[in-house]
Specification:
By secondary structure, the protein is an alpha/beta fold. It folds into 2 domains: 2-252, Type I PLP-dependent aspartate aminotransferase-like (Major domain) (Aspartate Aminotransferase, domain 2); 257-349, Alpha-Beta Complex (Aspartate Aminotransferase, domain 1). It has helices spanning 2-10, 22-33, 38-41, 52-67, 83-91, 111-120, 143-156, 174-177, 179-185, 218-236, 242-252, 254-284, 292-296, 308-318, 338-350; strands at residues 45-51, 75-79, 97-100, 102-103, 108-109, 126-130, 159-164, 191-196, 208-214, 301-303, 327-329. Strand 2, helix 5 (83-91) and strand 3 form a beta-alpha-beta unit. Helix 7 runs parallel beside helix 9 (179-185).
Length: 354
């Protein structure tokens, strides 16, 4: 069955068209926006297969910089964010500005600062959001906070750029993880989306992604689609096919899709278990610091709250490596190393070595 789907998908061609594999693109849009999406049902979303998330951002920001009618705008990215957001927006001529996002004291969302900065932005500015499992902090707005953010976006006529690298990999539920995007697209057409399947499909090396833009009509969709292809052609001619074929088959074959959905639950549950396990081990050791942020954050990464001196100490004394801002990869924890890591955290935060 899988072979039949693959053959039907690409019609046995050796390479995909400029926009990529059409059936794959359709499944990407359905996964992200949902079957109930009005824009999707009306055929108003332009989409193109991209070279993973980075390629999607490059394609999308190039299109946006060339064709967005409002030029005197800000490009706002959360502080902190995935560095590529700044790099690529700079490459196409923007000077990205940061809006407050992570609160170093609470180790949660700086919601008041976020709202204040979005309200201070120029009308029609572009704002970068993470659909779920914010990289690198693991801190997401609540549903109610997303609704407040949407009201600011609508009032300021902001253009929302959503990065989606962890759909299904954060909570185990694809629909749950796309709440922010689906909420926004019910109320505004000023949206573009950057998808990556490196994490939730484990296709890092295959470079599998999708870029899409919500438009106001099918006629506008056709024009946008043409412009995107004009940008893609001199960048990479056409995207790689093998990873996209895998995603196409998985999303298009009910029994395989069911297995993938279960795998997402397994992986997201494992990461949640490691978060809770780390906090529990620290409590068992008598550590009195508040580690609740580790379990309230979500996804692959956690901002531990360790400072630079503690990060250096844990590296030199225990060979545990993380970025200097204290971010760790939750996926790197397992039942065999959990206690070792917890003891190291306990040591550098209390001075009581094990």
């Amino acid at each position: 069955m899988a072979k039949e789907v693959v053959n039907e998908t690409v019609k046995d061609h050796e390479y995909a068209p400029i926009q990529g594999i059409d059936s794959y693109i359709a499944k990407c849009l359905n996964l992200a926006y949902g079957e109930g999406s009005k824009a999707l049902q009306e055929g108003r979303i332009a989409g193109a297969q991209s070279i993973s998330g980075t390629g999607s951002l490059r394609l999308g920001f190039s299109f946006f910089s060339q064709w967005y009618p409002h030029k005197d705008i800000d490009v706002l990215v959360p502080k902190p964010t995935w560095p590529i957001h700044k790099t690529i927006s700079s490459l196409v001529g923007y000077e990205p500005k940061e809006y407050r996002y992570f609160h170093p004291t609470t180790k949660g969302l700086d919601f008041e600062g976020l709202k204040e900065d979005l309200n201070a932005a120029k009308d029609h500015s572009l704002v970068m959001f993470h659909v779920c499992a914010h990289n690198p902090t693991g801190v997401d707005p609540t549903d109610a906070q997303w609704q407040e953010i949407l009201e600011i976006v609508k009032r300021k006529k902001l253009f929302s750029a959503f990065d989606s690298a962890y759909q299904g990999f954060a909570s185990g539920d694809c629909q749950r993880d796309s709440y922010s995007l689906r909420l926004f697209q019910e109320h505004t057409d000023d949206i573009m989306l950057f998808q990556s399947f490196a994490k939730n499909f484990g296709l890092y090396g295959e470079r599998v992604g999708c870029y899409s833009v919500v438009t106001s009509s099918q006629a506008e969709r056709d024009i946008v689609q043409s412009r995107i292809k004009q940008i893609a052609r001199p960048l990479y001619s056409n995207p790689p096919i093998y990873g996209a074929r895998i995603v196409d088959v998985v999303l298009g074959t009910p029994e395989i899709r069911a297995q993938w959905d279960q795998d997402l639950i397994t992986m997201s549950s494992r990461m949640a278990g490691m978060r809770q396990g780390l906090v529990d081990k620290l409590k068992e050791l008598g550590n009195e610091h508040d580690w609740s942020h580790v379990t309230s954050q979500i996804g692959m990464f956690a901002y531990t709250g360790l400072n630079k001196d503690q990060v250096t100490a844990i590296r030199e004394q225990h060979s545990i490596y993380m970025t200097m801002d204290g971010r760790i990869s939750i996926a790197g924890l397992n039942p065999d190393n959990l206690e070792y890591v917890a003891r190291a955290f306990h040591g550098v935060t209390t001075g009581k070595e094990f």
